[in-house]
Structure formats: C-alpha cells, structure tokens
Amino acid sequence: xxxxxxxxxxxxxRTVALEGLNLTVAAGETVALLGPSGSGKSTALKAIAGFVRxxxxxxxxxxxxxxxxxxxxxxIGVVVQQYALFPHLRVADNVAFGLRAARKPRAEVSRRVxxxxxxxxxxxxxxxxxxxxxxxxxxxVAIARALxxxxxxxxxxxPLAALDAQLRADMLGELQKLRRExxxxxxxxxxxxxxxxxxxxxxxxxxxxxxxxDIAPSADLYAAP
Length: 225
Ligand code: ADP
Ligand code: ADP
Fold this sequence. Notes:
By secondary structure, the protein is an alpha/beta fold. 35% of the residues lie in helices and 27% in strands. The protein has helices at 41-49, 91-101, 106-119, 135-148, 165-181, 194-200, 218-223; strands at residues 3-12, 15-25, 30-34, 56-61, 64-65, 76-79, 153-157, 186-190, 203-208, 211-217. The strands form 2 sheets. Strands 6-7-8-3-9-10 form a 6-stranded mixed beta sheet, sandwiched between helices. It has a 4-stranded antiparallel beta sheet with strand order 2-1-4-5, with helices on one face. It binds adenosine-5'-diphosphate (2 copies). One adenosine-5'-diphosphate binds at residues 12, 15, 17, 35, 37-43.
C-alpha cells in the first residue's frame, strides 16, 4: 500500500530531527534512504511506524490518515534499531506477535513462526529471551518478526548491518520473495551501503540535515558517469 508523508516535521526538544518531509512510496515500490548519521533517516521511519509523533504534517497509508493511529494498528512490519524486540517475550512469541494480533489460526501461526525462524537460522533459539541473544541474533529475530506478517508496508533500518555475508544474501533473497508474494508492499529501507541500495531500491532518497535533498530512480544513478 502507498505510504505518503506530507510536510512531516519531528522535533525532540529543540532538535529538529525531520523538517517538512514530503515523500511518497508507491505500492510495490522500494525506496532506499541514504544520508549521513544524524540526518533524520531513522526518525522518518519511526514517524511512519508511529513510534514518534510529528509536530506538524500528516502520514497516510493507502490514502488513510494514520497520523493519530497507534503503532500496533498500522499493520506495518518494522525493523528499527531501538524497537528491536519485546524483551518479555520469548523469540517464538516475538515472531508470533503480529500474527496473533491479526487473529491468525493457531496452526498457521506455528507454521509461519517455524518457517521464519528457519529462514534466519534461529530455530534453536525459539525458547530464548532476547537478552540471551547476541545483537546479530536479535536482529535476525526482528527481521523474522517483521516479515512474518507479510506486511503491506515494511520499514527497515540498516537491517543487514550486523549480519555475515551468507545471512545478508539470504535476507536480500527473502526481501525479493516478499516483493513477489506481496506485490503491493511498499518498502522503505535505510542503509549506508550504496550497492545494497542500488540492488534493492527502485528509487534512492538522500537526506541531509533533517531534509530530503534529492530523490531519483536507482537506474539514473547506475547511468551516472
Ligand atoms: P539518522 O537515522 O539519519 O542517523 P536520526 O533520525 O536518528 O538520524 O536523528 C536525527 C536527529 O535527531 C539527530 O540530530 C539525533 O541526534 C536527533 N534525535 C533522534 N532521536 C532522538 C531522541 N529520541 N531524542 C533527542 N534527539 C533525537
Ligand atoms: P514509551 O515512550 O511510551 O515508553 P515507546 O517509545 O517504547 O513507548 O513506544 C512507543 C509506542 O510504540 C508504544 O505504544 C509501544 O507499545 C509501541 N512499540 C514499541 N516498539 C514496538 C514494536 N517493535 N512493534 C510494535 N509496537 C512497538
């Protein structure tokens, strides 16, 4: 489903973390957000997810204004660093969370959780709590949880940063698979890695000092001299 940000401004005290962001990610489109540390990329994702509240502007999903809708009711798959996992839930229950919230039948929940844990190589850790895992393992569970619900909107903040080469490849494959299985999925993807952005994104948006300074199709960047 389409994600629209209209003049979205987010402030933390006196810090303007995001200033008047206008951005539309079309259904079926993947947009990569590039930019230096502190430029507002994560804040943009958190605003869409509903973890931070804009001081100005509106956010719409499939044309519906969700600016005042709580995060859990937005139906979005999220992998952002500070909101990684629910600490009081075991790994399997973290992955099952969104499926249960959507009232999926028990058998389907079990099957899907097993499938997702298999994908990220975490079956052995199903009964563990997040604090018993390494950072990279937590990241893998967060990806499993986000993809479990086959979301219509997927927000990813450096999802592959803590993973080794094989897992990165598997994960990129899984994202391509999601795009095939949920053709309407809108993906917004924060990365520092240009090649990753080019490999995955239809368009690349560049942020600097809380503002969007450039947005262009990846193909144009490929063609650049
Ligand atoms: P990026 O993801 O591009 O690294 P962020 O969106 O995390 O940037 O941060 C943008 C700006 O907002 C930075 O100046 C950062 O220090 C500030 N910021 C982010 N989150 C908070 C917060 N919870 N409280 C105060 N300032 C914050
Ligand atoms: P608070 O500042 O009130 O302690 P947080 O900043 O931790 O809350 O989270 C803001 C909202 O986002 C809360 O309603 C919380 O339940 C929700 N939330 C936090 N992390 C996630 C997540 N990973 N998935 C879904 N909802 C989350």
